[in-house]
Amino acid sequence: MKKFFLILAAGVSAAWISGCADRNLEQPYQWSQRASAFESLDAGGTAEGFAADLCVIPADESWDDPMVNAEAAAVFDLSDKDVIFGKNAFRRLYPASTTKVMTALLAIKYGNLDDVVTVTEDAVITESGATLAHIEPGDQITLGQLLYGLMLPSGNDAGAAIAVHMAGSIEKFADMMNEEARSLGATGTHFVNPHGLNDPEHYTTAYDLYLIFNEALKQPYFRQVIGTTAYTAQYTDADGNPVTQTWKGGNWYMTGERETPEGLTVLGGKTGTTNAAGYCLIMAVQDEAQKEYVSVVMKAGSRPDLYANMTQITVSYTHLRAHETAANL
Fold it and tell me: What is the pTM of this model?
């Protein structure tokens, strides 16, 4: 597998990261968006590259696997910082509720999980088919609890409540999301809401989803939430009465509705489904050698197809990598 590095030397122009210079993007890579990666120079006059700790894929590279019929898919080896499978990884697609990975990241990274959030009318979601945590205006619930309502039942209402608490409005929170995306190098992404309900200006790529999810995995509370199959929240309603709700996750591997890929442990992830986005899933797995991988499937045609695609790419390519590693020992 090819390795790509970004090196900045004093007095020498910076080189492009191959995977970020996608000619198909409407707003191609801008060097100014990466400038924050170079905050200081060491004594040798060099700075660590922006992608030194990331899996990087060339824009024009794609693996041909007839078993993968989803619109886009990819597998990232977090341990070796390598991409081991990619199909249309830079194609802009609707993310559906995989959007909530960014919402959770912002809440954990910049919020106070002990904050008591008063749910506002913004959390009233009336769109047909929208998944909900069933919180109500006036409810008082901690930010930490809301994250379970966001990620397990995929509560769009929880996303709205988090957004208003964090930024004062849905629009301002979307600005935070886009700023964070840019800082992570997710230049093929644009968000307009915290939950992923369809909007023509709300899109991302399989590669950008990896960048966001990879950053979220650095947060222990995020790992705790996505690794949970059921959570019981206790909070109060607008009149001060106690409310108890149990939220359950929808990842078929974790609920037992789909057999876990052989030799792997599913650490958790996020599903997403709308008519426009199709069926999406991003998740982290660990193999028997404790190596971690992130797998992404976007726009599968059905829920069974989603898991067939995910099993295909996760099993085939993580096992291939394990065999390659063993052969090199």
Answer: 0.84
- Single out the catalytic residue among 3, 81, 154, 291: 154
- SS3 letters across 235-301: EECCCCCEEEEEEECCCHHHHCCCCCCCCEEEEEEEEEEECCCEEEEEEEEEECCCCEEEEEEEEEC
Marked catalytic residue, from 97, 270, 295, 299: 97
**Tens of pLDDT, residues 80-101:** 999 999 999 999 999 999 999 9
Question: Angle 130-136-137 (CA atoms, 0-180°, nearest 5)?
Answer: 120
Of the listed 100, 270, 295, 299, which one is catalytic? 100
Are 98 and 85 contacting, i.e. CB atoms less than 8 angstroms apart?
no
| 17 residue type, one letter | I
* CB burial readout 30-48, b (16+ within 10 A) else e: eeebbeebeeeeeeeeebb
Active site residue 97: yes
Extract the tokens encoding 39: 């905050």
Cα 282–Cα 288–Cα 293 angle in degrees, nearest 5: 25
pLDDT digits (tens, 9 = 90+) for 71-82: 999 999 999 999
Asked if 100 is an active-site residue, the reply is yes
154 in catalytic set: yes
Q: What is the C-alpha to C-alpha distance for residues 114 and 1, in angstroms, rounded to an integer?
A: 44
Maximum Cα–Cα distance across the chain: 65
Q: Cα 324 vs. chain centroid, distance in angstroms?
A: 27
Question: What is the per-residue DSSP string for 166-221?
Answer: HHSSHHHHHHHHHHHHHHTT-TT-B-SSSS----TT-BB-HHHHHHHHHHHTTSHH
Alpha-carbon span 329 to 324, nearest angstrom: 9
CB 57, CB 207: distance < 8 Å: yes
Instruction: Give the separation between CA 271 and CA 213, rounded to whole angstroms.
Output: 12
